[in-house]
Amino acid sequence: MQVIDASNLVFGRAASQIAKMLLNGEEVHVINAEKFVLVGNPRYIVERYMARRRAKHKRDPELSPKWPRVPHLLVKRMIRGMLPYRKARGREAFKRLRVFAGNPNNAQPTTELKNAQYNNVDKCITIEELCKRLGYTG
Q1: For residues 53-76, average pLDDT
Q2: Are 79 and 15 in contact (CB under 8 A)?
Q3: What's residue 98's pLDDT?
Q4: Average pLDDT, rounded, for the chain
Q5: How many CA atoms, within 13 angstroms, populate the side-chain half-sphere of residue 84?
Q6: 86-89: long-range contacts, CB 8 A cutoff, minimum separation 24
Q7: Is 113 helix (H, G, I), strand (E, B) or coil?
Q8: Would you call 97 helix, strand, or coil by DSSP?
Q9: Predicted pLDDT at 107
Q10: pTM beyond cutoff 0.70
């Protein structure tokens, strides 16, 4: 089992590595999911996710894709997008993923991800800030 601390990790780089671990049969737990960093202009990032939440199926809105506002559920949904979820292999991999907001029960030592650390402060937004702008009040 791999435990990954998401504090100051670039989301896309870390999520691709997490998806590979899941597809290789490992169980992955992500802690502090709300501290992932999305790099880019915060205004455009928020607009893009607002557009995803507004997208509706014309004939039956119940068939529309679901995009949560809760930080750890949003991270889980975004990682699902990097898996072949419509195939059995992707669904099995997705079942091995656990995402937590905060650090429950002071989890085990964490795994370091290569090339995913973000130390710069310019033009970025955390998942927590994004969710607050999408309407999350928790």
Answers
A1: 90
A2: yes
A3: 95
A4: 91
A5: 7
A6: 89/23
A7: coil
A8: strand
A9: 62
A10: yes
Residues 6+ apart with CB under 8 A from 24: none
Task: Give pLDDT tens digits for 15-24.
Answer: 999 999 999 9
Separation CA 15–CA 26 (nearest Å): 14
Q: Return d(Cα 122, Cα 138) in angstroms, integer.
A: 26
Rounded Cα–Cα distance for residues 117 and 75 (Å)? 17
The tokens of 8 are what? 């100051």
Contact partners, residue 92, CB within 8 Å, separation at least 6: none
User: Which residue carries 């529309």 as its tokens?
Assistant: 64
**Cβ proximity of 30 and 17 under 8 Å:** no
CA distances for 35 relative to 16, 55, 58, 90, 127, angstroms: 17, 26, 35, 25, 6
Domains of the chain, first to last:
2-134 (3.90.1180.10)
- Over residues 122-137, the pLDDT tens digits come to 899 999 999 999 999 9
Please say whether the beta carbons of 117 and 8 come within 8 A: yes
**What's the CA gap between 37 and 26, in Å, rounded?**
24
| Percentage of residues in the chain having pLDDT higher than 70 | 99
